């Protein structure tokens, strides 16, 4: 299954429910999942990291659907067709 198919399946199953909530609610759930990911990383729990990454990605895709954002195009433009890593302030 490719990226657009996943995004569309999430839209079909969850879009109506997401519209009944709000963008701030969806964002709050994303931050909750990001916190759970941080805890899994802190514990170095590989299985939990995988699960929480999936939860974070799901929430990002739900937000993308909510705003009709073309995140696939933006990812390609920003990270495949160019390389912004040269501008990152990486730790030494």
From TrEMBL:
Domain NTP pyrophosphohydrolase MazG-like: 25-84
Pfam families given in the database record: MazG
PANTHER family the UniProt entry points to: NUCLEOTIDE PYROPHOSPHOHYDROLASE, REGULATORY PROTEIN FOR BETA-LACTAMASE
Annotated protein name in UniProt: MazG-related protein
């Amino acid at each position: 299954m490719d990226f657009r198919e996943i995004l569309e399946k999430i839209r079909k199953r969850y879009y109506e429910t997401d519209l009944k909530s709000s963008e701030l609610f969806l964002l709050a759930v994303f931050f909750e999942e990001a916190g759970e990911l941080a805890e899994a990383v802190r514990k170095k729990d590989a299985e939990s990291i995988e699960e929480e990454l999936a939860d974070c990605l799901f929430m990002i895709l739900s937000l993308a659907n909510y705003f009709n954002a073309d995140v696939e195009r933006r990812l390609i433009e920003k990270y495949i067709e160019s390389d912004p890593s040269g501008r990152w302030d990486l730790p030494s």
